[in-house]
Amino acid sequence: MRVQQMVRRQVRRRRRWQRLRLAVLVVAAAVVVVAAAVGIDRLAVVVHKFYAEHHHTQKRASGVTNPTTSTTSTTVPGPARCQSPQLSAVVSDWRQTSGSVQEVVGLSNLSLATCSLAGYPVLGAVAQNGTPLPAPNSDTATIGTAGDVGTTAAVGTTTPSATVILAHGARASFELSYSDTCDHVLQPGEAATGAPNECYGGLWLEVTPTPGSSPLIVTQPIHLSYATSGLEVGPFQAGSGPPLTGQPPLTAQTTSPTGPPTTQ
Question: What radius of gyration, in Å, describes the C-alpha atoms of the chain?
Fold first, then answer.
């Protein structure tokens, strides 16, 4: 019995070894076939990935793994800012007193779309030959009468931060003031020396109603000769604004140019 049991054990061991050898041969043959088909490099990558997935535990993050940034942008409500092609500009009122000039410039919406104006315009000046001139702007909520110390003229009820809405055909306006006491008018391109009563000899007024827009050319009812200190500019207000104080100039004194400068 013992001999028979030992024989059976040896037979079983031999069978196991034979099966194991056969399995190793089959696996080796499969590896050779796959390697020939996909390449040794790819096979190594697949084996490494299989090993990593089944033998390495990774800590999973909780919550959102790929947060997205909101692309929602906030826009300012109300009509868009008025651009120069939508508007026409004209000097609707002016006063020329001893040593100073005050003007009201009206802007009308010619387009069919409603637009808005806010804050202060940017003003410039052009000489008779078309040369742009220095024109420092001083934004002022109330325009002072140049040459008359302590006196001011209210621009209107509209505050500088208010927005004026212009429908088709509606008008907004602003005031400007400058000193015209001139002992010496600088030629275009001539630098100011700082001497008293130096002036630039302008003829056309440029009005930029909205930052980034092109300037509007406004023909002046009087020559735009202003002190080198520049122009005081009031904020936009709805409508044509109240009449300026003082005696209006005579119509015969009007010296409007016949057209804008050729360079513009």
Answer: 43
